[in-house]
Amino acid sequence: MFEIRRYTAEKESEWNMFVARSKNGTFLFNRGYMDYHSNRFNDHSLMFYLDGRLYALMPAHEDGELFCTHRGLTYGGLVMDSKTTAAQTVLLFRELNDYLRHEGFCHVLYKCVPWIYHQMAAEEDLYAMTSVCNARLVSRDLGIAIIQRNTIRWERVRRRALKRAQETGIAVARSNDYAGFWKVLTENLAQKYDSKPVHTLQEIELLNSRFPYNIVLYTAQKDGEILAGMVLYVSNQVSRAQYSSASPLGKQLGAIDCIYDQVINHDYRDLPYFEFGTSALNNSNAINESLIFQKEGFGGRGICFDIYEWDI
Predict the structure, then answer these.
(1) 50 φ, ψ to 5°?
(2) Closest CA to 145 of 18, 264, 17
(3) What is the pLDDT at residue 283?
(4) Disulfide engineering: 80 pairs with which of 84, 99, 143, 297, CB 3.0-4.6 Å?
(5) Phi-psi map region of 147: left, alpha, beta (phi>0 left; psi -120 to 50 alpha)
(6) β-strands 238-246, 273-278: how paired?
């Protein structure tokens, strides 16, 4: 029998220590990251204890009768360590359903941690929720990633853009000028997609101050002007392009290609995977074909970001 406790701030240290040693968790599950937008979500994260020992975590929030894991994060679900077993995970999901039913929930929305973020095999939750909960797949976003041990040559259009940028003398370097890049990013998103960055400038600066080794900004500049930039989210397995954008001149000169070359082929070459993020069109399951084409041009290929649901 599991003891299921709702997370409280007094458990922050214990929670974060488990995330750090987990087999499928990243810094996104650290409370210092999760709680930056706590005002937007009614947190209902859970901690599972077995024989007095913390066995697993579930970052989550509630929305009426809906239990979500977790709309405010790129991925979510059950956070496990190396001691997790299939049989115990099946039991955990049975008892999770009992807990949720007792708490008045009627429906569950469950995001999965994509396999590239796993430090060892970690799909016991997928088996358990389908076999115990009759979970059904309701959403599948297509992400693009590179497996660094088996890379694909860049497409000709990308190689030409990189050469053009290098010949122009564009300089790529790490930077702390989030304000300068956010101006480029915000203007580009507004013009091209009529949208805004998920994070405000103040939020991304706050998160960078809390996770300076996990959240890293690169800029491409010429004559002191930021032509392009990229915010990387760096975990044990993956460097992810959380944001990337270029000014009109930057696009013309291939500035973003210079950044991709630096982070993929040099600075983060030793990490197993580089991930470009998903490419959904207007928050739908339809893909943005031009954006996918660009990412595939760098040698990326598809991985899935899945969301399941079930009724209590």
Answers:
(1) -130, 120
(2) 264
(3) 59
(4) 84
(5) beta
(6) parallel
